[in-house]
């Protein structure tokens, strides 16, 4: 039961796609240098967060089978440590985003905690600090502090906003294959020298510039459908390559794998094509989705947090925070 001092909120945690992903080289810190375009989509986990101040810290997660090394719990601990607060945090997490699919589900859940918990605790975390904690949790987490369409550099944590993509609709095909990110990077590492770095950079740059011509990303999204992971992941799981071909045959443009897999997406300009393509896959493997713009992402957040935020700043600010110095 919730006590009188409990503040709670129910949030969506949207999934992402990588509209193109280039892996350039392995860096001295062991991570790989990336170039990617992130895009939030309508598929979302649901996360309920209830916070009650206390003398000790207790974190519980219900609603989902136990997840090893849960990012939600780690995010909550890092926030509480950063804010020097204690209390009871109760999460109810309804997972709709499968793991091992390259859709960033765990990262999105973690970012939801980073955005919501300081507000419920009546404290402000400066956005630079939020960004640093997000990057500490995982390479994809910082993107979910922003949403929409963004260019990701470095290990994916260096982000630049891109203009919104026109509302695009598509299909996600979830085959049930669990693709390990670490394994995919290991497989890819040995191939990285075969394509000259400058060629990869030039083609990625060309695609993003072309996609953003006239200040808008054109047509059915950024026309970047090259994902360097496809070669190695399709090699391990040939059925994934077949799914991509099937989507293309039904008119998807682009059709590609997201992240290190295993979800394959296809964007369709015509609803009739999308419908036909959907029917060609078994029911429980294909899901309609649409792009979520940065404005939609933020307004979904504002709606969810409306009792607890004031102003229009991003990240959302808590009215409970009294004398937070502006940083
Ligand atoms: O950052 P994150 O925890 O999501 O990364 C998981 C693993 O994926 C890392 O430990 C690393 O092996 C690999 N990785 C990488 N280069 C990146 C992102 C992830 O090598 N840019």
Largest sheet: 10 strands, mixed
Would you identify the regions where 5 or more consecutive residues have pLDDT less than 50?
A: 323-327
- Quote the beta fraction: 25-35%
- Let me know the number of strands: 10
Mean pLDDT: 89
From the helix content, strand content and strand pairing, which structural class follows? alpha+beta
Number of helices: 9
Instruction: Give the N-terminus to C-terminus distance in angstroms.
Output: 37 Å
User: How helix-rich are the residues, as a percent range?
Assistant: 25-40%
Radius of gyration: 20 Å
The run of helices and strands is: EEEHEHHEEEHHHHEEHEH
Report the principal-axis shape.
globular
The small molecules bound here are: cytidine-5'-monophosphate
Question: Can you walk me through this structure?
Answer:
The protein has helices at residues 71-83, 105-120, 127-137, 181-189, 197-211, 229-236, 238-249, 271-279, 294-304, and strands at 7-26, 32-53, 58-62, 87-94, 149-153, 158-161, 169-173, 255-257, 264-268, 286-292. With 327 residues, it is an alpha+beta fold. Strands 1, 2, 3, 4, 5, 6, 7, 8, 9 and 10 form a 10-stranded mixed sheet that branches. The radius of gyration is 20 Å and the shape is globular. Cytidine-5'-monophosphate binds next to strand 2 and helix 4. Cytidine-5'-monophosphate is lined by residues 31-32, 34, 138-140, 155-156, 181-182, 185.
């Amino acid at each position: 039961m919730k006590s009188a001092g409990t503040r709670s909120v129910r949030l969506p945690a949207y999934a992402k796609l990588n509209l193109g992903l280039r892996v350039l080289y392995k860096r001295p810190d062991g991570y790989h240098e990336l170039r990617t375009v992130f895009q939030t989509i309508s598929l979302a986990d649901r996360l309920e967060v209830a916070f009650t101040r206390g003398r000790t810290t207790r974190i519980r997660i219900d609603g989902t089978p136990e997840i090893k090394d849960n990012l939600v719990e780690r995010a909550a601990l890092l926030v509480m440590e950063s804010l020097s607060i204690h209390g009871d945090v109760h999460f109810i997490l309804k997972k709709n985003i499968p793991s091992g699919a390259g859709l960033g589900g765990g990262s999105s859940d973690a970012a939801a905690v980073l955005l919501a918990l300081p507000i419920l605790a009546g404290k402000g975390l400066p956005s630079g600090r939020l960004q640093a904690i997000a990057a500490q949790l995982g390479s994809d987490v910082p993107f979910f502090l922003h949403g929409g369409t963004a260019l990701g550099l470095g290990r994916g944590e260096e982000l630049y906003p891109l203009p919104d993509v026109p509302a695009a609709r598509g299909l996600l095909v979830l085959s049930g294959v669990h693709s390990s990110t670490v394994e995919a990077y290991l497989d890819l590492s040995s191939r990285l020298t075969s394509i000259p770095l400058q060629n990869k950079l030039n083609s990625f740059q060309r695609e993003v510039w072309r996609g953003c011509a006239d200040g808008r990303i054109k047509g059915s999204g950024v026309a970047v459908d090259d994902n360097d992971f496809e070669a190695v992941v399709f090699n391990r799981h040939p059925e994934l390559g077949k799914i991509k071909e099937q989507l293309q045959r039904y008119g998807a443009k682009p059709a590609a794998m997201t992240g290190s897999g295993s979800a394959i997406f296809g964007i369709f300009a015509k609803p009739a094509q999308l419908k036909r393509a959907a029917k060609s896959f078994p029911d429980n493997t294909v899901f309609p989705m649409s792009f979520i713009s940065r404005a939609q992402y933020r307004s979904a957040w504002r709606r969810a947090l409306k009792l607890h935020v004031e102003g229009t700043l991003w990240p959302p600010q808590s009215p409970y925070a009294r004398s937070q110095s502006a940083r």
